[in-house]
């Protein structure tokens, strides 16, 4: 009988801890009851319908002796589908099981990244982040000038209902980017000023300089900007410039997997563990990188042109991906403005500038699944089981088994760069149930890697000599 596991079906039951290997996975538990298969749940500390497609399967039977694991190759970062068009989207984030976009006069939300709901607004939110600490979205933007203010900031638990307040004391421009940590929100004011607040009412101007974006990690804020500018702050008020080692402008920064990754013009990619000492990496393309995001164990950078993007498991070695996104006419330009990860896929905001008409259109695209989805089938006599892995990036994965969701045994390492079949002898012995899961395996490492981005931080140390990251 065939078992088709989909994350949206995992809606009932208790949560199970998967341990450190794959904390972003949704877990489907399938049990035999009177010869019928029923789905219980689910996920690590979150409702199952908000997580990525499952990478763990429980099979219950008396005599499961043989397992076959065919893995089907694909490049999900090369396969993108248009989901939204005709909306003035500026940024996108994922949290609490929901994708949320912000932009001019409207907000879009989606559970799966495929179907979207639009809600009109009278304010313009131009940047959005998800605050894991307080389980809420934070948006920043502009305020109607005739009401006496220029900036705005708001919060939302679900991405649909927002409380938005004006920002009165920061000049004549709106806010475009933000980071939150240690009870403080730091926002970028139209690429020139950093401001901070602890209560969303009283704002403190900080650093006046061409700043493009900011992240929080390792208990510090790190901002990037024009001509290779990098500056750090412990409190969002007092900032110090550090040596980036580059003069190319840096457009975006993210903190995940215990490291900062900053990207910018002329293919510039920098990596740091503390935000103060930076390594310059050599990517396989010299695109204008406009956005960087992390999910499913990989960093992804995208920008202009949209025909290619890059990914890395460690922020050092980067892999080039050719996309199926169409190039614009030669007189026009098309650029990734923003990226986020959720539910096993990346979502990207792409802007197209039409030079002859002097206007831009914005579309939202979604990648194919970047995680391995496990499907299972069992023979009628319960003598063998076949696990099928679909999707996922071209990389190494570890297949494991357990009888109690606590103690895990390694079965094999597989790579989905080409179709393959691996036979596993898997007798149940005295066990009445057995769990299987797949986890990403870090390149150049003997251990598995976490697939959950941590919140942003930084620590200030004396700069040391820069090194080149290996290809």
Strand content: over 45%
**What structural class do helix, strand and pairing data support?**
mainly beta
Counting H and I runs of at least 4 residues, what is the number of helices? 0
Query: Sheet with the most strands?
Result: 6 strands, mixed
Return the average pLDDT rounded to an integer.
75
What radius of gyration results from the CA coordinates?
A: 23 Å
Broad shape:
globular
> What's the helical proportion of residues?
under 10%
Reading side by side through the largest sheet, how are the strands ordered? Answer: 3-2-4-39-36-37
Instruction: Tell me how many strands there are.
Output: 40
- Which stretches are low in confidence, meaning pLDDT under 50 for 5 or more residues running? 1-69, 443-471
> How far is it from the N-terminal to the C-terminal residue, by CA?
46 Å
Textual characterization of the structure:
With 471 residues, the protein is mainly beta. Helix content is 0%, strand content 50%. The protein has no helices and 40 strands. Strands 3-2-4-39-36-37 form a six-stranded mixed β-sheet, with no helix packed on it. Strands 1-34-35-5-38 form a five-stranded mixed β-sheet, with no helix packed on it. The protein has a five-stranded mixed β-sheet with strand order 23-24-25-26-40, with no helix packed on it. The chain starts with a strand and ends with a strand.
Write the layout of secondary structure elements.
Layout: E1 2-3, E2 25-33, E3 36-39, E4 52-60, E5 66-68, E6 80-85, E7 89-95, E8 98-103, E9 106-110, E10 117-120, E11 124-131, E12 136-142, E13 151-156, E14 163-167, E15 175-181, E16 184-189, E17 193-197, E18 204-208, E19 211-217, E20 220-225, E21 230-233, E22 240-242, E23 250-256, E24 259-264, E25 269-272, E26 279-281, E27 288-295, E28 298-304, E29 308-312, E30 319-322, E31 333-342, E32 345-354, E33 359-367, E34 373-378, E35 384-390, E36 396-402, E37 409-415, E38 423-425, E39 433-440, E40 468-469
Parallel strand pairs: 2-4, 5-35, 26-40
Antiparallel strand pairs: 1-34, 2-3, 4-39, 5-38, 6-33, 7-8, 8-9, 9-10, 11-12, 12-13, 13-14, 15-16, 16-17, 17-18, 19-20, 20-21, 21-22, 23-24, 24-25, 25-26, 27-28, 28-29, 29-30, 31-32, 32-33, 34-35, 36-37, 36-39
């Amino acid at each position: 009988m065939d078992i088709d596991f989909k994350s949206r079906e995992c809606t009932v039951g208790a949560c199970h801890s998967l341990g450190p290997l794959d904390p972003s996975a949704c877990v489907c538990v399938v049990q035999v009851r009177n010869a019928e298969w029923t789905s219980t749940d689910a996920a690590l500390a979150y409702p199952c319908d908000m997580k990525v497609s499952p990478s763990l399967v429980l099979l219950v039977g008396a005599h499961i002796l043989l397992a076959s694991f065919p893995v089907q190759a694909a490049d999900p970062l090369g396969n993108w589908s248009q989901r939204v068009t005709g909306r003035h989207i500026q940024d996108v984030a994922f949290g609490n099981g929901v994708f949320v976009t912000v932009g001019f006069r409207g907000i879009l939300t989606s559970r799966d990244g495929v179907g979207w709901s639009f809600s009109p607004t009278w304010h313009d939110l131009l940047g959005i982040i998800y605050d894991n600490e307080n389980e809420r979205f934070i948006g920043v933007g502009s305020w109607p000038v005739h009401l006496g203010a220029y900036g705005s900031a708001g919060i939302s638990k679900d991405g649909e209902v927002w409380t938005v307040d004006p920002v009165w004391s920061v000049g004549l421009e709106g806010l475009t980017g933000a980071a939150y940590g240690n009870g403080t929100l730091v926002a970028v004011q139209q690429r020139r000023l950093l401001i901070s607040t602890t209560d969303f009412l009283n704002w403190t101007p900080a650093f006046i300089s061409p700043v493009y974006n900011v992240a929080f990690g390792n208990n510090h804020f790190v901002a990037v900007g024009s001509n290779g500018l990098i500056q750090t702050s412990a409190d969002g008020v007092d900032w110090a410039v550090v040596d980036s080692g580059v003069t190319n402008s840096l457009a975006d920064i993210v903190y995940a997997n215990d490291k900062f990754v900053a990207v910018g013009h002329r293919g510039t990619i920098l990596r740091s563990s503390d935000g103060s000492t930076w390594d310059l990496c050599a990517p396989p393309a010299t695109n204008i990188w406009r956005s960087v995001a992390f999910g499913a164990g990989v960093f992804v950078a995208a920008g202009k042109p949209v025909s290619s993007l890059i990914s890395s498991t460690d922020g050092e070695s980067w892999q080039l991906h050719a996309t199926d996104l169409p190039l614009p006419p030669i007189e026009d330009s098309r650029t990734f403005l923003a990226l986020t990860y959720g539910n096993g896929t990346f979502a990207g905001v792409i802007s197209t500038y039409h030079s002859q008409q002097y206007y831009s259109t914005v579309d939202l695209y979604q990648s194919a699944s970047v995680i391995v989805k496990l499907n299972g089938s069992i023979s009628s006599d319960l003598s063998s089981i076949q696990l099928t892995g679909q999707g996922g990036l071209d990389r190494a994965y570890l297949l494991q088994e357990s009888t109690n969701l606590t103690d895990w045994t390694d079965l094999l390492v597989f790579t989905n760069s080409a179709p393959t079949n691996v036979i596993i002898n898997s007798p149940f012995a005295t066990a009445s149930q057995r769990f299987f899961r797949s986890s990403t395996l870090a390149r150049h490492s003997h251990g598995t890697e976490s697939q959950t981005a941590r919140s942003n931080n930084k620590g200030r140390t004396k700069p040391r000599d820069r090194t080149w990251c290996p290809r």
